[in-house]
């Protein structure tokens, strides 16, 4: 048995040509592409001598959309967004609602200072800086050989 790729361009011999156009307009509109795909933003995690850094790529949001919560040593970053496209005409041919949400959780190490966490959202990237406790900062010094 051979699998054959479905090609919508080769349906010209349909008995009801307008019938297929109805389904094309429903499913080729961003319905499956935008609403059925789970979106969890990518994260970059890095460390310097002074801080831990988390960068979350989340374009198209506002800083008010984010909620950061620290519970014990778990930092959770969440977003819930409801948007509605509404045309004020009485006879709607199309009206869309969009709901998206995600939660990313990060377990902070014991060396993280949970009282010194800062976050900023610019250019579609949420940047979270977590300071290290003073005793956890690496101290570098030259040791003399005798």
Summarize this structure as a short list of keywords or feature phrases:
mainly beta, single chain, 42% strand, four-stranded antiparallel sheet, 146 residues, three-stranded antiparallel sheet, 2 helices, 11% helix
How would you characterize this protein structure?
The N and C termini lie far apart (80 Å). By secondary structure, this protein is mainly beta. The chain is 11% helix and 42% strand. Strand 3 and strand 4 form a beta hairpin. The strands form 2 sheets. A 4-stranded antiparallel β-sheet has the order 1-2-7-6, with no helix packed on it. The protein has 2 helices and 7 strands. The model has no long low-confidence stretch (mean pLDDT 78). It has helices at 17-27, 31-35; strands at residues 43-47, 51-57, 66-71, 74-85, 96-107, 112-122, 125-132.
**What structural class do you assign from the helix and strand content?**
mainly beta
Query: How much is the average pLDDT?
Result: 78
**Envelope shape:** elongated
Major sheet attributes: 4 strands, antiparallel
Percent of residues in helices = 10-25%
Spell out the helices and strands N to C. Answer: HHEEEEEEE
Strand residue percentage:
35-45%
DSSP summary, beta strand count: 7
Total helical elements: 2
What gyration radius follows from the Cα positions, in whole Å? 25 Å
- Widest sheet: strand order? 1-2-7-6
What ranges have pLDDT less than 50 throughout 5 or more consecutive residues? none
- For the termini, the CA-CA separation is 80 Å
């Amino acid at each position: 048995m051979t699998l054959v790729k479905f090609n919508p361009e080769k349906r010209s011999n349909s008995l009801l040509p307008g019938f297929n156009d109805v389904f094309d307009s429903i499913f080729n509109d961003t319905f499956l592409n935008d609403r059925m795909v789970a979106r969890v933003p990518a994260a970059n995690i890095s460390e310097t001598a002074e801080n831990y850094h988390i960068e979350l790529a989340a374009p198209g949001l506002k800083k008010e959309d984010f909620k950061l919560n620290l519970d014990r040593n778990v930092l959770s970053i969440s977003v819930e967004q409801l948007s509605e496209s509404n045309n004020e005409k009485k006879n709607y041919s199309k009206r869309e609602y969009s709901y998206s949400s995600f939660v990313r959780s990060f377990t902070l190490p014991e060396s993280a200072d949970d009282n010194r966490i800062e976050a900023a959202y610019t250019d579609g990237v949420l940047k979270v800086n977590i300071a290290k406790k003073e005793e956890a900062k690496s101290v570098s010094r030259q040791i003399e050989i005798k």
